[in-house]
Amino acid sequence: MKLSVPSESNIINLLRLWYLVGVVGFSLPVTHEVFKALSPLSLLLLGGVFFIYHENRDKRLLWVMLVIFLAGYGLEVIGVKTGKIFGVYTYGKTLGFKVAEVPLIIGLNWVIMVYGSLAIVSFTRLGRVLGSLLAAVIMTGSDIFIEKFAILSDMWSWQNVEPPLQNYLSWLIISFIFCLLAHPSVAGKTRKVALHGFIYQMALFLLILIIHRLFWP
Known about the structure:
The chain is mainly α.
């Protein structure tokens, strides 16, 4: 029996509601810790939604995403151990179970970032190289908000408080390589769900940072 899923419009409305609740939950001191603990679940749900609503799912998509998951995770392990890739940083407890000092869920975060950025690029007419470059720029720009939100939520922390320029240069290069790999499987084959999901997640980070700066002591 084939399981039915909500329509695109319905799942987009659910995602909007999920992230609105997240903004409130992260912004209130009384619920902040609870929503921090829910962060890994939120990433799992978003990754699942992206996959379910992808057009023409095939084995290539699965293999590409697995490669990005493993490569992204592996680079994070090397980065944490050596400080040579992104700079000197350590992961906190928020993102859950760790192997080699890196949360397993971080591999999925790389997949979501690549997929979401390519979902935006899918609505342009750019080819593989220029499209992947634009997606990498989107990923790197998004990381500016992610870094500040991550520090606030004890996802990870930097030796010198703020991430170094090295972090963003590495993000740009690695993101470009990952997007080049995933472009044929993702660009032009995604739906509006991924676009909305990615934008809502970035909006959540930005809104929480603004609320925290304005209202928290």
